[in-house]
UniProtKB/TrEMBL annotation:
It comes from Streptomyces endophyticus. GO terms for molecular function: catalase activity. Its cofactor is Ca(2+). This is Catalase. Gene3D superfamilies: Catalase core domain (2.40.180.10), Haem peroxidase domain superfamily, animal type (1.10.640.10). It holds the Pfam family An_peroxidase. The keyword Transport does not apply.
């Protein structure tokens, strides 16, 4: 009785010890081990020559049936009752019997064998029971298990297996551990198996059994069902044939038994290599598993077996009351999920050739030394490109920080619902299921990641006063143009940012940030018609609640993180459908070629905050482009339905936008030969230059093709855009305060307007009056502002938005501080640049230098935005080299992580017409498709974001305003 009471009072965590001292530390270990298991699958695939990936273990099935039954005994002991384990309860079960190797081989080869059982209790509840034909594991824990799997990966012949066991394994785990593991494996595989129906299978790891505490279970052949004639062991599939003969004559049954926990020494939970001996904890029969007599050679049976081969068994597909216990079992959740995802083509293992790993280390070190004396942008072009390759490697390794709140320790869960087949060929409305193995990754609501460890300093939120910083260092005093660009470049980047990032704000008046005005700073009116106040007030961002005492520095993105055109199409199904033509048409709604407006004069589109005429021109252009793609698809593929046309057109337009940004906008704002080559390499692959090709082959062969020809790779952290990325894309100085609208045929001036005359509701009436062609021409011949200090648009320093009047430059500073983005010097150092030690290291301009010293007490206090704007950029760059480091990290990541821009960027998904549309298209082709009269005005040898050719006004035409 005392023993029963002691067992019943067992708490699951009592004897579980987490590697590294905490569930989170252990989770990181398991994630790394899961990636190693995926590499084992890759090695096994190469060695076996299999077309696809097999299961990492138990690859070859001898039996798969869906019509088995599990029935609990009528006399089930009271102490073992709980959950689905009730006297006389009976449930349908799926059963798979298999060999244990990760490669298919003849049944007569030395091997372990296993059983997987899925007990279906209800539509919402099931339990996966996995067991192997030996009572003890060769590995104490997950590290040893993975080390053994890696040592034996791809080993097919005796010599390879011996090398793995006697050389690779001792090097990985030590000689003593390797000897113990080898003895266990040899004892297990020495056993001759003639029938999988007559074998016993042990769980080898502990599990919770409701209130009874830890148990191990085993499945042993039921009494009866005598032995069959000895099979032909020369037949490579004799185990399957033996089962077929046996089942044709009668049922196959196993008794499910449990061994109860006694103490940590004799029945340990954490050590999988210790046998729970029957003399210490006798097996107690609790249920019978019956595979009914049947013909498993029929077409129906073969179809069922194929369905089972597509299943993913995982001991964590259960309930909390029956969850697995111990290190090995905790690791299985991550490992099995990763292995299954790779097998089903939803997760991928990047391959780095040995030559790249060997040569990469010394070359990377050489560049780090070289960059102490010569920055990358002052090197010859070929050398600077290679330098950037290695800088990006460093950034990927050190500057991708996972901010997701991860599950640790693992929790039981139901069997995942199969992915909707449509989501394999369509972008979802909200960004879910881009990564089919992690459906919520990058979706609407997913948290912004980090490139640098956040610094949360509430005591410095108002130090120095952000209003003082803005007025002294940011505010535009006279317009400084960016003469290599046109205003379309300014409109484009806002168009893109609206697709990428948006922090949710509380409604005006609900919860506000208050910024005190500095002494002598006057007053501020925070709402239209409101009183004069001594503080600036604007809506606070809504953060994500974090467990424990963590500071509130995690924020969700109300847009999806993917490059999916959500600014055009909307970020949810309801919005997306409202933007389409009635009756489920594929085309987007347009009103006379322009975006429809609501009763307030605001456009009806995917994202319309901060609306102005430049943004309207981009939305109008790409809404028309979507409709042009739809029309072309309908003409080329008459049998294609409207829903498929819509989603295919969205894929095409989104990919075209990504291409334009990658190979046109970015080289325009970072106007150097190295960047132009590097970004075209991202999309198209490197130039056909033998030296470039050889260098990449030796040092980073991954870059030998454009990213769209590669597999998705998240580089060790779940994909998301980051708070640091948001910070470097604060490019508001690009916006001029006044605009001259001109007619493109004769060059006549139409109007001169201020920004407030073309923003908000006024934007749509103005673009309709001017026309899209003249709007594009007017912006194409005019320059945006330079991204520098003292050039923040005046119109944005007193800006009305959603019932608030804000100074957007102050908001930019405050948001960056409160979101925990490090100040400029720490930001710079975190991106592997030398810290500045004095203000003169940042600028030599006397007036700016004096103001910096007046505003900040020391260089470590300089705001990130201020430092980025003040920094002297490389020749041709429109923004700083420090900001550029975030860019080179995240620019490729946005492509590389996206399934629809890598592995599913193919004709089967996009259609051949769609692929051709993207590959041959660009910003010029989009403009000319919808405004063909502009053909002679676009730059000949530059992108559409470079200044256009202005038409001289006709001598006798005059001008009018």
């Amino acid at each position: 009785m005392a023993e029963n009471e002691r067992q019943a009072s067992y708490k699951p965590a009592q004897y579980e010890r987490y590697e590294g001292g905490s569930p989170e530390a252990e989770r990181l270990v398991f994630e790394r081990l899961a990636r190693e298991i995926m590499k084992v699958q890759v090695a096994n695939r190469r060695a076996s020559g299999a077309q696809g990936f097999e299961r990492a273990f138990h690859a070859k099935a001898a039996l798969g049936v869906e019509n088995a039954r599990l029935r609990f005994n009528d006399d089930l002991p009271a102490a073992l009752r709980g959950g689905f384990a009730q006297p006389g309860a009976e449930y349908p079960a799926t059963v798979r019997l298999s060999n244990a190797s990760g490669m298919r081989g003849p049944d007569g080869a030395p091997d372990l064998h296993g059983i997987a059982v899925r007990v279906k209790v209800s539509a919402e509840q099931s339990h996966d029971l996995l067991a192997t034909g030996f009572p003890v594991s060769h590995a104490r824990d997950a590290r040893e298990f993975v080390a053994f799997a890696k040592a034996m990966a791809g080993a097919r012949n005796p010599l390879q297996k011996a090398f793995g066991l006697f050389v690779k394994l001792p090097l990985a785990v030590g000689l003593g551990t390797a000897n113990r593991m080898r003895r266990n494996v040899q004892a297990a595989t020495r056993h001759t198996v003639n029938s999988l129906a007559r074998e016993t299978y042990w769980s080898r790891g502990a599990m919770l059994w409701s209130e009874a505490g830890p148990v191990r279970f085993l499945l042993r052949p039921a009494v009866g069902g005598g032995p069959e004639p000895r099979p032909d062991r020369h037949d490579p599939n004799f185990l399957h044939r033996e089962l077929a003969r046996r089942l044709s004559r009668g049922d196959v049954a196993f008794d499910l038994c449990v061994q109860r926990y006694v103490d940590e020494r004799r029945t340990p939970v954490e050590d999988g290599s210790v046998e729970w001996k029957e003399a210490i904890t006798p097996p107690i029969p609790v249920a019978r598993l019956t595979v009914p007599s049947q013909d498993i050679t029929t077409a129906e049976a073969r179809s069922a077996a194929r369905r089972i081969e597509e299943l993913s068994f995982n001991p964590w597909y259960t309930t909390d009351g029956f969850r697995p216990l111990g290190n090995l079992n905790r690791a299985r959740k991550a490992a099995y999920r990763a292995s299954s995802a790779q097998r089903h083509g939803t997760r991928f293992t990047p391959h780095e050739p040995l030559r790249n790993r060997i040569l990469g280390a010394p070359v990377g070190f050489a560049f780090r030394v070289l960059n102490r004396y010569v920055p990358w942008h002052r090197l010859p072009v070929d050398l600077s490109l290679l330098n950037l390759v290695f800088l990006r490697k460093v950034l990927r390794r050190l500057n991708l920080i996972d901010t997701d709140v991860q599950e640790a320790p693992p929790k039981a869960e139901p069997v995942p619902v199969p992915v909707d087949e449509r989501l394999r060929t369509e972008r979802s409305y909200d960004g879910t299921y881009n990564d089919l193995s992690e459906p919520k990754m990058g979706a609407v609501g997913a948290a912004f990641g980090r490139n640098l460890k956040p610094v949360f300093r509430p005591d410095l939120f108002d130090t120095p006063n952000p209003v003082t910083v803005s007025r002294s260092l940011l505010a535009r005093e006279s317009f400084v143009p960016a003469t290599s660009l046109n205003i379309l470049a300014a409109a484009w980047i806002q168009f893109q940012v609206h697709d990428w990032v948006n922090h949710r704000r509380y409604k005006a008046g609900d919860r506000a940030v208050e910024v005190p005005l500095p002494p002598g700073g006057g007053t501020w009116v925070n709402t239209p018609g409101g009183p004069e106040e001594s503080v600036m007030r604007f809506a606070e961002n809504e953060g994500i609640e974090l467990p424990g005492d963590k500071p509130p520095i995690l924020f969700g993105n109300t847009a999806s993180h993917w490059w999916d055109g959500s600014e055009v199409y909307g970020g949810d199904e309801q919005t997306a459908k409202q933007l389409r033509e009635p009756e489920g048409g594929a085309r987007l709604l347009l009103d006379g070629g322009h975006i429809p407006i609501d009763r307030t004069g605001i456009p009806i589109t995917g994202f319309k905050d901060n609306w102005w005429m430049g943004l309207s021109s981009m939305h109008t252009l790409f809404a028309r482009e979507h409709n042009a793609v739809c029309d072309a698809l309908r003409a080329e593929y008459p049998s294609m339905g409207e829903e498929r046309i819509y989603h295919t057109a969205r894929l095409v337009v989104s990919a075209l936008i990504a291409k334009i940004h990658t190979v046109e906008w970015t080289p325009a704002i970072l106007a150097t030969k190295a960047i132009d080559i590097g970004l075209r390499t991202n999309w198209e692959g490197p130039p056909r230059n033998w030296l470039n090709q050889l260098g990449l082959w030796l040092l980073e062969s991954h870059s030998l093709t454009g990213i769209p020809k590669t597999m998705p790779d998240h580089h060790g952290a779940p994909y998301s855009l980051t708070e640091d990325f948001v910070t470097v894309y604060r490019m508001h100085p690009l916006i001029p305060d006044d605009y001259e609208l001109r007619e493109h045929r004769f060059g006549q001036r139409l109007e001169t307007l201020g920004f407030n005359d073309i923003q908000g509701a006024a934007a749509e009436s103005q673009i309709r009056k001017t026309g899209l062609a003249d709007t594009l021409y007017s912006f194409g011949i005019a320059h945006p502002g330079a991204i520098t200090l003292h050039n923040y648009p005046k119109s944005l320093t007193h800006f009305q938005r959603e019932g608030e009047i804000i100074d957007l430059s102050v908001v930019d500073l405050v948001r960056t501080r409160r979101r925990g983005v490090p100040r400029y010097n720490d930001f710079r150092a975190g991106l592997h640049k030398e810290r500045i030690r004095r203000f003169e290291d940042l600028t030599q301009e006397p007036e700016t230098l004096a103001r910096l010293k007046e505003v900040y007490r020391d260089v470590d206090e300089i705001d990130t935005v201020v430092g980025l704007f003040a920094e002297n950029p490389p020749t041709g760059f429109g923004f700083s080299d420090t900001a550029f480091r975030i860019f080179i990290l995240m620019a490729t990541r946005r492509l590389q992580s996206d399934r629809f821009l890598t592995v599913d960027y193919r004709p089967e998904i996009y259609t051949p017409l769609g692929m051709d549309w993207v590959e041959k298209g660009g910003m010029k082709s989009v403009i000319l498709r919808h405004c063909p009269d502009l053909a002679s005005l676009l730059p000949r040898d530059a992108s559409a974001f470079a200044p256009w050719r202005p038409v001289p006004p006709a001598e006798n035409g005059g001008e009018h305003g």
